[in-house]
Write a structure and sequence with these properties.
alpha+beta, Immunoglobulin-like, 8-stranded mixed sheet, 26 strands, binds zinc ion
């Protein structure tokens, strides 16, 4: 692609590396269909009401003026509430979000600082800057540019006196993201030097991901019981100070799952400034190493709450799900040679994210397990999380996810489309939506995307424009798709293999309809103990297990609940490994308002399996997956697999036996 400096949108300004695509401004893409329903359910659940329940995002928030209040929860909440409110055009929620924006803007002091006076921690400010950037894209309020310019001018000298430390040192990549955003709008060269300083003070994620030092569970390197035993006072200020500051031998921050997935963006963003391919390669090497040593079928990594290997009964934190999604989003424009990152983004969004929230979005789990056969208050083999971590509740284990989960869907939506540097549009990830954007000659184009994807393989794009206009439209063909077909106005225009972007450059007329079909075949992925994952399109499938929900404590609708199994779960799948399609019958149902509901899943894979009697509960979780292929003479039974996100109890790393060898 050639560089086009007269683009309609903000691309990287030199010397930042030019990328072939860039984000559309906030609000250009609106949700439709099932995704709009999903976000509406979220808004009617905890996201629209958290401030009425938790004083951390109310009277005790230091971002609303409380002295010595909570500094992190407010910005976390706003980072999801603000986009959710505006994307749904929900006036009541827009009003809720506005008071925080007002407070943040008014908090700016003459020296350039902003935020709560009593707490000078950089980390919560990084989050609030990300909120203000969205607000600026939505409102064009110049006060944001002014505040950010003054704050970053303040930050340079401040970092010399008080360098990044603790969480801020691990998460400096989020500062880099904000600094680049401002530089691309103002061209202030001092921001480039600030970016260099921030990178230097941030944990060395390039070095870490180039050669991952933690290829086993964190417990192999640091015994948590022994770490705790060094502090007779327990979880005391001295304990936190040592661990968070890096004074303790345990490398706390760089094994911490949320920091690790947040850290993935750091080398990629720094690469834009340095053009050094070492940084670019580190991101891919990091994803590859994390997947090999800690990866699970839903696209995530074991981390409860430090890297915990690839056993499917280890957990991963909800913050790591939404933050991994955000990291992938910040990298989409940099890694356009193939479709790995958008494929991963869809996988995490369409599987891990809904799985960890209750279907009404009032409760969430701190930790989800890929093989999750019992949700209860009990001691499990977590590295250092408590016995309530896998409950569906208000704030199991810790309050961080309660305020951070809201960003998942709204930010995902912003990444459906990208502007390309030849003034075209690129469909990056798919979901029902409507995008309005300027293309060649500054003509406004609206593209309605009608689809039930990921629950269906057909995507219909209807183009509206004031006058005929020529521009390139690129469609991502995911790597899992062997051969996509593209029709224009009912006539086949082309076919495309997967793992690439299919380009259509033509004179578009209002009313043109592009139909993209992405045939979904059953795929088998291999995991630890030779277990298999069952995937079809962007969805992962899991054994449907009968669920009995038992309220444990708390106030409805956000009380803490256990989920107990009412049907067996210890099945091995009958598989024809060479022709996996032959082992399953796909049954389609109407897509309900909440498709991630085990009672009405839009897709069911019917299969056969045999129970493995020796595979039983161990430490309140499914025992280790029996080594496959398993030998078993039990009776063959009919079983159902449903989308992972709908199955709150599930097996998704399966043992199997070969149907062709029985
Ligand atoms: Zn969390």
């Amino acid at each position: 692609m050639t560089k086009n400096t007269s683009s309609n949108y903000v691309f990287n300004r030199q010397p930042l590396l030019h990328t072939p695509t860039t984000e559309l401004p906030f609000g250009a893409i609106k949700p439709q269909g099932w995704l709009r329903d999903q976000m509406r359910i979220q808004a009617d659940g905890i996201s629209g009401h958290l401030d009425e329940i938790s004083d951390r995002v109310g009277s005790r928030s230091s971002w609303l003026g409380c002295d010595r209040g909570d500094s992190q929860s407010g910005p976390y909440y706003l980072d999801g509430l603000f986009p959710l409110a505006h994307l749904l055009d929900d006036e009541a929620l827009i009003k809720k979000a506005a008071k925080w924006i007002d407070w943040a803007l008014k908090s700016a002091t003459p020296d350039g600082a902003f935020g709560p006076l009593h707490d000078d921690d950089y980390w919560p400010r990084m989050i609030m800057l990300k909120v203000l950037m969205q607000y600026h894209e939505q409102s064009a309020d110049g006060k944001v540019i002014q505040l950010m310019s003054r704050y970053f001018a303040f930050l340079g000298p401040q970092l010399k006196k008080t360098p990044l430390s603790s969480w801020g040192k691990a998460r400096g990549g989020d500062f880099l993201y904000c600094i680049n955003w401002l530089y691309n709008r103002t061209g202030d060269a001092s921001l480039l030097e600030l970016s260099r300083v921030v990178y230097e003070q941030t944990d060395d994620w390039t070095g870490i991901f180039a050669d991952l030092p933690f290829t086993r569970s964190t417990s192999f390197y640091y015994n948590w019981e022994r770490v705790l035993a060094q502090y007779p006072q327990g979880l005391s200020p001295a304990f936190y100070n040592d661990l968070f500051s890096g004074a303790h031998v345990m490398r706390f921050h760089i094994t911490h799952i949320v920091n690790v997935v947040m850290g993935l963006k750091t080398p990629g963003i720094h690469y834009l400034q340095t053009h050094d391919p070492r940084h670019k390669a580190a991101v891919m090497s990091g994803i590859e190493s994390l997947t090999r040593h800690h990866g699970v079928v839903n696209g995530m990594f074991g981390g409860d709450e430090h890297l915990s290997g690839n056993d499917p009964t280890q957990g991963h934190e909800l913050c790591s799900v939404v933050e991994y999604m955000f990291s992938l989003q910040t990298l989409l424009d940099i890694y356009t040679e193939d479709t790995l990152l958008p494929d991963l983004l869809e996988k995490v969004a369409y599987n891990a994210l809904p799985a960890q929230n209750s279907k009404d979005y009032w409760r969430h789990q701190y930790l989800q397990q890929p093989n999750q056969v019992l949700v209860s208050k009990a001691k499990r083999n977590w590295y250092n999380n408590n016995d309530e971590s896998n409950l569906f509740g208000f704030e199991p284990n810790c309050f961080c996810c309660t305020s951070n989960l809201h960003q998942g869907w709204p930010k995902f939506l912003k990444n459906l489309w990208r502007a390309s540097d030849d003034r075209g549009l690129t469909a990056m990830v798919y979901a029902p939506s409507r995008v309005t954007a300027k293309v060649a000659d500054g003509v406004d184009v609206t593209i309605e995307q009608e689809t039930a994807y990921p629950f269906d393989d057909k995507i219909v794009l209807t183009i509206s424009c004031g006058k005929p206009v020529a521009f390139p439209l690129r469609l991502r063909i995911p790597a899992w798709c062997k051969q996509a077909t593209v029709d224009i106005n009912g006539k086949q225009q082309g076919q495309s293999a997967g793992n690439r972007y299919h380009a259509i450059d033509r004179l578009w007329q209002s009313g043109d309809v592009v139909t993209l079909t992405l045939p979904m075949q059953i795929r088998i992925s291999k995991w630890g103990n030779n277990a298999v994952g069952i995937e079809r399109g962007p969805l992962v499938y899991a054994l449907k297990i009968g669920e009995e929900w038992r309220k444990l404590k708390g106030t409805d609708p956000y009380a803490d609940w256990e989920v107990h199994p009412t049907t067996p779960w210890n099945y091995a799948l009958e598989l024809d490994l060479k022709h996996p399609d032959r082992s399953f019958t796909v049954e389609r149902k109407p897509v309900a308002r909440q498709p991630y509901d085990a009672a009405c899943p839009p897709l069911i894979l019917r299969a056969k399996g045999k129970r493995i009697p020796q595979w039983q509960l161990q430490d309140h979780a499914a025992g280790p997956v029996p080594q496959s292929p398993v030998a078993c003479d039990a009776t063959l039974e009919d079983i159902e697999l449903i989308p992972y996100g709908a199955a709150k109890l599930r097996i998704s790393h399966f043992p199997y036996f070969d149907s062709t060898r029985q």
